[in-house]
Amino acid sequence: MPLRGLLYFAQQFEGLVDVRGENIYGKGRIGLPTPEYIVFYNGSGMETDSQMLYLSDAYSAGHGKGCLECRCKVININRGHNRELMERCHRLWEYAELSAEVEENIRKGMVQHMLLTEYDEKKHLRHTFEEGRQEGLEAGMEKGREELFREQIHKKLSKGKTIPEIAEELETEVSVIEHIVSHP
Fold first, then answer.
1. How many whole angstroms separate alpha carbon 168 and alpha carbon 165?
2. Sheet strands side by side (includes 71-76)
3. Strand 71-76 relative to strand 50-54, pairing
């Protein structure tokens, strides 16, 4: 986790420097916000309420060696941990309870089918394509009907028919014909 944090902070600082238009090659110091790296952990295997992880633990020379450190505070948000935090943040408590219930149901085999069901991207895309194709066909057909209707009106007008006569022949309201004639 500390390595992930280091890479994340590097990206964030790079973006901040870029947005500000700072010169990283200049002589002046560039002020940066002080980072805090906290991870809410709900996996298994962590018995304590929190622990501190260090990037230098991954160095071949060991903890505390080298010129670069990144500390990651890991907070256990599993059911039964960090009660004070859970009391202050009800949503976090709800999440911890939901996670615990899901884990219990997994152990009981109640959600096995859901977990084993795979997302089939090709099938999803095929259905999405077909739905879009159908919508496109329907929209195209509707546009074609509208164009044919307009053509019929203009042909009848060119033959000298009146708007009320055209409305009667096409079995529609006079106002519809008037609107089409006035908006070619």
1. 5
2. 38-41, 71-76, 50-54
3. antiparallel
For position 93, what pLDDT does the model report? 93
The SS3 of residue 93 is helix
Compute CA distances 17 → 11, 12, 30, 42, 62, whole Å: 10, 9, 8, 34, 31
Which residue in the block uniquely carries the two structure tokens 């057909």?
141
pLDDT at residue number 119: 66
Of 141, 144, 177, 145, the closest CA to residue 161 belongs to 177
| Contact of 72 with 52, CB cutoff 8 Å | yes
**What sign does the dihedral 35-12-41-67 (CA atoms) show?**
negative
The answer to whether the predicted template modeling score (pTM) of the entire model surpasses 0.85 is: no
Here the tokens at position 44 are 């298994």
Domain ranges in the chain? 2-116, 121-182
pLDDT reading at 130 higher than 80: yes
Phi, psi of 125 (to 5 degrees): -65, -40
Sequence-distant (≥ 6) Cβ neighbours of residue 171 within 8 angstroms: none
* Rg of the chain in Å (alpha carbons): 34
Task: Label residue 82 left, alpha or beta by phi (over 0 means left) and psi (-120 to 50 means alpha).
Answer: left
